[in-house]
Amino acid sequence: VAEALLAPATGAVIAIGGLSGSGKSSVAAALAPVIGSPPGARVINSEDSSGDQLLECKNCTECYTLKHSRDCAYCAVGESDRDCHDCNFGDNCELQYNCSNLEKNYHVICGMLVWYCKETFYCMNSFNSEHLFGCSGMKRQRHCILNKQYAKEDYEKLVPKIIGHMQATGEWGQFFPADLSPFAYNETIAHEHFPL
User: Fold this and answer.
1) Which residues 6+ apart lie within 8 Å of 179 measured at CB?
2) What are the backbone angles phi and psi of residue 126, rounded to the nearest 5°?
3) Could you tell me if 84 and 148 are in contact, meaning their C-beta atoms sit under 8 angstroms apart?
4) Confidence of residue 124 (pLDDT cuts 50, 70, 90)
5) 0.90 cut: is pTM over it?
6) What is the mean pLDDT of the chain?
7) Count of H helices and E strands in the chain?
8) How many angstroms separate the CA atoms of 123 and 87, rounded?
């Protein structure tokens, strides 16, 4: 089988027309496996991008199921994202790093289930907040560290010290450790994707 996949194949172009929502993509996906060699990536109206299922993306590297995004790398499942790296399930986000399940955020590092937040670092389950560090379950809060409210000036003095310590220990930029997961490995479908 491997040798057959490496053999040169003749190209084929098939045009499928129709109105929006009429099933053009479904027909194309169904036809692709039976026409010639295995299909390549589906990258539509995108430039300088790699991955699969990309629509109108620019400068996106190894991204999958992304729409209308630019300058992203190693992201999956998102729309209208800018300057995001190592993220999944994010829409309308900018300057995200190492995050999951995001909506309309600006500058979030190592966040999980963070929506409508700004300048948020190492937070989980936080919404409509800004300037948070190491918080969980926050709603409409500002200038908090480990769920404790600080004056703006104190917050701005403490956070660089915490980041400096984390950089010195090699923790800065690393996602939450697995032992913080609310679910055990065998209670999830992780084994279907990452068997032990």
Assistant:
1) none
2) -125, 140
3) no
4) very high
5) no
6) 88
7) 4, 11
8) 14
